[in-house]
Amino acid sequence: MTQSDKPTDLLARLGQLSAPELRRLLVEHLTKRKLGLTWERNAIEHDEALNADVVLPQLVPELNHKPVETGEKFVHRNLVIEGDNFDSLRLLKATHAGRIRVIYIDPPYNTGNKDWVYNDRYVGKADRWRHSQWLEFLYRRLLLARELLAPDGVILVSINDENRSRLELLMDEVFPGRRIGSLVWRTKDTGNDLSQRFSHVHEHVLVYANPGFIFNGRPTDRKKFRNPDDDERGDWSPQPLTKSHTYTERGNTYYPIQNPETGYWYPCDPDNVWRYASEREIRRRLDNDEDAVAAALDGLRSDTIEQLIEKKLIYFPPCSPEDVMRFDTRDELLAAIREGRGPILPKKKTPLLRENLPDLDFWIGKPIGTGRPSRKEHWTARPEEERLAPLSSWIAGINEEVNDDDEYIEAVITMRSTRGGVATEEVKSVLGGKAFPYPKPLSLLKGLLEQATHKEDTVLDFFAGSGTTAHALLQLNVEDGGQRRFILCSSTEATDKERDKNVCRDVCAARVRRVMAGYNGSPGFTVDQGGEFAYLKLNKLAPADLPFEAKTDSAAALLSLRLAHAVWEFGEGGVQHIARADDYDILLCADVNANTVDELAAWPKAHGVQRLAVYCDRPVALQEALEERGVDANCHSLGEALLAGQVGGRA
Question: Where do the record's region annotations for Disordered lie (predicted)?
């Protein structure tokens, strides 16, 4: 928000506002919530920006990339869009609403260190409206992005620790109830701001998704399933019996377990109590009140530990008699605890019995087994499609050791990524110089896309920067045979001081083009692995000027994006083929005249279709002319088609 947009200036303008604007202002005032994120914003200005004009794509043939062996006419399913990403999103709302399954963005971090150009100037630390400008800047774009997500779509947003809290509240505002969580990525080994002896070495990836989304996970490793006790039900994997609550937090699941076959007892870890309730403990706590016990047992969502033991689903590790511990007096038990000779966790080596624990006298005279019990999960217990390991929220370093000190751990997928500084070298290796500040590592994006995408998905990045998202997507396609598509939106980032700067053309598109063509250090990339993209620029027209100034190639590009979700390199001629659907062709007729009517009349027989759908500037006249020629066609207004989904939010 600029200084002219302050509330005092808005009050001065009240007499000049129209009735719809006054209603909009009143609605905003009456419905503004008291709890949540608040920043200076002008909702009327937002509506005006959203509906001010029509955004049309202009194909730039010389900047397209396509396989060398193709002919003149070629369909592009990958897009690089140059322009303000607010306008790019407005265009995509009209062409791809509900069709984008994965959005990844790495927005400017609002550090004030000349890393964010807004309204053709850098926003510095001294700008008093910096945070409001940043929030409103993102809010407008996220609202549009929300409309693009598929029913099972997800948006992943990189952010630093300083701005994470603000952005998370903003995401909650735009995507209410859609938060999955955040991934934490260690970006460097040591921080460089040690003025407070606090080292900032991590960033976040916020994850918000529609209800149908789940991460891909990974099939459970069959090798982890064995059968050391010759269980007749077959191979099984040990799963933990504990959960991360202390005995003071979950006292009802702090109890001893006994192996009925050996009589050995196993203490509960006071820092990680059992996952399952105990009928014996419930009866003890309820003084054997049968009605209360029955009600408590009916309320359980899983078996009790006694039921699991009876079903032989609890595994007690072998324990030789000489390893069994037994303390015949309290003094003997206390002495063992003080001297570290009591029962301990096998890996952590922390004591399971402490002097201050309740019911310590229970262990006097009891045979205490070594090792830790676990729950059996048989290979046949779940369908294979459900036997998937989940994604961990920790993104580890490439060479970082990831250990879990529990006796048994549930399988999780830990993403790995190089440190942030490596990404600069990755860009240099493709473009031959340091061309973009603070890019994200290829390994980070590849890991995210591997977990978030299916093989046929469309991925959008509307802060495309150096094009890492497309680079990672192409590499992933090569490895798994996928046909994922990308849409990259990038601005020139030109300013008054750098008028010729064009990050979209010279960095983003240039990098993707070189990756597609193959470059030193990029083995395995060939031009037949999704090696194409259309380069689009954006033109904006007032709705009233649309019938007079909209060019044929822009109209054709917009229609092909909306109807085929691709862009053709259109040839010459009065009739352009947009898409084919079932038994009819969708066509654009820029000029209705005798020649184009003849061409349309001959089209069905020449191209093997039954019907036509034609967009033109004179639909009624063309419909009548084709009916006279016996052609089954539906003619539609080109002007209305170009307006659809943009001005006024019309669908």
Answer: 219-252
